[in-house]
Design goal:
It contains 7 helices and 4 strands. The radius of gyration is 18 Å and the shape is globular. The strands form 2 sheets. Strands 1-2 form a two-stranded antiparallel sheet. Strands 3-4 form a two-stranded antiparallel ribbon. Helix content is about 45%, strand content about 15%. It comes from Photobacterium chitinilyticum.
Length: about 160
């Protein structure tokens, strides 16, 4: 009987931790359009597998943290569903340079870079050019800033 009680406690703790994680991740402000589509419908997995921005197809979709992602293939969708944190863009899909400045700016899906197996997006190619001048420094600053602005709506910054 004692083992059964321990098991039930473990199940309860795991359930509470799962709920806490889900609630926490739902609070993050994600960059989406009016239909909750992220990255303007571009396939987040393609940045890693094809090394280019590829427009997704709504026939291959998956939801993650209150955002809908489109994929160019069912295989890409399935890879994302298996490990969404691996493929989802950093900083909720907002401009990496903007987050380093303490702001949240929309992004151009064609202004991107994968660094240390993480996807970073920028406002546009001109902003990306500046971000490329000191990627490690801007990522470090953005990581620090993100911890305080991730739950704040973009228009409140």
């Amino acid at each position: 009987m004692n083992m059964f009680i321990k098991f039930l406690r473990l199940v309860a703790v795991t359930a509470v931790m799962s709920l806490s994680t889900a609630a926490f991740s739902a609070d993050i402000d994600i960059s989406t359009d009016s239909n909750d589509v992220a990255i303007k419908g571009y396939d987040p997995v393609a940045y890693f597998t094809d090394s280019k921005a590829v427009k997704g197809d709504q026939a291959f979709s998956a939801a993650h943290k209150n955002a809908i992602y489109h994929f160019s293939t069912a295989g890409n969708r399935d890879a994302f569903k298996a490990d969404p944190e691996k493929y989802a863009p950093q900083y909720g899909g907002y401009c990496a340079f903007g987050v380093a400045m303490g702001k949240k700016f929309e992004t151009d899906p064609n202004a991107w870079k994968v660094v240390n197996n993480k996807l970073y997006l920028n406002l546009d190619k001109s902003v990306q050019k500046r971000w490329l001048e000191d990627i490690p420094g801007y990522i470090n600053t953005a990581n620090t800033n993100w911890s305080t602005i991730k739950t704040v709506e973009a228009d409140k910054l």
